[in-house]
Amino acid sequence: MASLQSLFSEYWPHLAFLLSLVVGGTAAVHAAMTKNDVRAAIGWVGVILMSPLLGPFFYLVAGVNRIRHDHISEQRNKSLKESLPIPPPPRADIGAIRAPQFDSLRVLGDRISRFPLCDGNHIRVLRGGDQAYPAMIEAIDAAASSIALETYIFDNDSVGRQIVDALARAQQRGVNVRVLIDAVGSKYSRPPIIRLLRKKGVPSALFMTNPLGLRMPYANLRSHRKILVVDGRIAFTGGMNIRAGFTTDAAGAKTAMDTHFLVEGPVVLQLMSVFAHDWEFTTKENLAFKAWCSDRWDPPQPLAPARCIRSGPDRNMVGTHNMLLGAFAVAQRHIRIQSPYFLPDQVLMGAINTAARRGITVDIVIPGQNNLRLVNYAMTAQLDQVIHSGCRVWRARGNFNHSKLITIDGAWSYVGSSNLDPRSLRLNFELDMEIYSRETAAEIESLIDAEIRNADAVTLESLAAIPFRKRLRNRVIWLASPYL
């Protein structure tokens, strides 16, 4: 033993060097072989080689995609469809919107989504928590058979506890309830709401608990999806988390804004399918769709073709990214974008800029007051790129608006949980809907146009007037934008 200790004390620098070579080399090879984005591959290999021990550890925590594709496979979708006595929904006819440029976009959606574009859906726009949360609680209280809820942030505040109480009442009267909360999002409030859910006997779970027990506020691979499905017949989705800050009762004059959507019709099956996949991946419980879905819908008018678009670091990688590339390419008149975090990559930026250079009117609305200071700095650093190409950029005055809304030519809308930033487009599990409806597009456009009327235009002159030290700060933070 003494000889081993003396040998180690004499040669430990050599052993440490050998260990760093093995660990660093293995991590660098893994990054080079698994990263499809050359910039990501170069960045990770550089971090690993520059810090042969700390670099691989950081890569293990933040850079490795731990999602196995076979966990979220289409084979399970196939078996579920075969077990259901529900006929497939009729394929939607988009001719009613009288916009032939969308025919190719529909084909793109068919190949990206794997969900059919189905007709017969009613989409109701809900403005902020004052409209969305009461509607959600009313639906939960009326539930007769099942409730599935998935969200990123579920705060332990006045609104969160109201929803927990409604879920507990449903559970007590025999309704099947499942609640899935992202592991990172659950830590936004103390104590986390999942403790209260479990105390009240509501079946709940955390999606993607952090590796090694680390509590990292920016851990990768989050479920950013927002889904509530009641009795398989009515659903809520969009970009709004469960937080009292979106209600005037709690926040008063500082109420944050957002946009959520109440959905009725066959697209609810798609929302339930996404939840069932995420729940099975997290808990290994296979939800029987016969008990969680409905084959009867009687949605009110007007009706619209719609479908869900999944994206995430699995087989649905860059789903939203590719859909938006196609949408911007077919635009003929007007593109409206509202995003709280506008940090598109260079490919998506190129598509937006190309649309503007083709003569398309492109309006981009971002918050004047942002809840994430670093993201705001990074956004500001690259606004000149879209303004140079002719896009109009607006900073909305008033309270922070968390809405994620896109419309094309007054006929096509894209709504959901995805932000236009690297994390949403490549790292998060996201869920969005494409909607072919002039009525829905007009309602969303009215919301965006109202923001523009109460906004300040961002110009090249106003960007140049920012002091150099702040422009330098913004640019440095922009370099780290893929990890914000």
From TrEMBL:
Residues 219-246, 397-424 form the PLD phosphodiesterase domain. CDD domains: PLDc_CLS_unchar2_1 (cd09157). The chain crosses the membrane at residues 41-62. The keyword Ubl conjugation does not apply. PANTHER family: CARDIOLIPIN SYNTHASE, PHOSPHOLIPASE D. One of its GO terms (cellular component) is membrane. GO terms for biological process: cardiolipin biosynthetic process. This is PLDc N-terminal domain-containing protein. SUPFAM superfamilies: Phospholipase D/nuclease. It holds the Pfam family PLDc_2. It comes from the Bacteria. GO terms for molecular function: cardiolipin synthase activity. Keywords: Membrane, Transmembrane, Transmembrane helix.
